[in-house]
Amino acid sequence: MRKTLLAAMLVSVVASSAMAQTHQAEAPRASGTDTSSHTITYKERTQYEFDADEVEGSVVHPDVDLITGRLKSHHQSLVRPRSSFQSELLQSVDSL
After folding, report:
1. For residues 22-31, average pLDDT
2. What is the pTM of this model?
């Protein structure tokens, strides 16, 4: 049972990978000419010249609204540092 299941899984993996391969489409050829011998060459430098056309325009920007919110509130700290630890020191001496 395991061998047949393993064989079926192996066949399905191989078959699915074979279906996933793409076929290369052949490029249409002109009648009687071989397109592989043609090469494309480009100039080393291409220069474009434009006429002296005047371009008019204006700067377009969105309308700006200043939105103000509440200012950051300042609170006093709720943690108050002790000024003296004298009572704790006296209790620790008593425990000795």
Report:
1. 54
2. 0.21
Please give the Cα distance from 32 to 29 (Å, whole number): 8
Q: Give CA–CA dist 58/93, Å, rounded.
A: 84
Whose tokens are 């002296």? That residue is: 52
Residue 30 pLDDT > 70: no
Round to whole Å and give the CA distance between 96 and 88: 13
Q: Which amino acid belongs to residue 28? A: P
**Cα gap 15→8, rounded to integer Å:** 10
Q: Residue 85: which of 93, 96, 73 has the closest Cα?
A: 93
Using CA of residue 89, residue 94, residue 95, residue 96, what is the dihedral sign?
positive
DSSP state of 78: S
Structure tokens at 60: 């377009």
